[in-house]
Amino acid sequence: MFTEDLVPFLADFGQSCTAGAVQFMGLLDQPDELMQMQRGTTLRASAHSSEYELTYATAHVTLTRGLPVTVAGVAYSVREAPRQIDDGVFSVVTLSRT
Length: 98
Hints:
Layout: H1 6-13, E1 15-19, E2 22-29, E3 32-39, E4 42-50, E5 52-57, E6 68-71, E7 74-78, E8 83-85, E9 90-97
Antiparallel strand pairs: 1-2, 1-6, 2-5, 3-4, 5-9, 6-7, 7-9, 8-9
């Protein structure tokens, strides 16, 4: 069995995060989403929206919906329940900036 050491990876690429009294490292991403607004079958307009997603080591912290999280000194709150990625070593959660 292969054992992963996530600390060096997160130290190189991550940002300092805090949730309650727990400090951990995470990767903040802002993927763009193209939203198309239509009425019936006619396309009316489209808009770009940026979301905030935080990827973190699942074992390092437990995040729940509504929990305040600080990433690199910026305040967010957890918008949706975390989703595990692949083997569950990492999880990703959608954030809202507060």
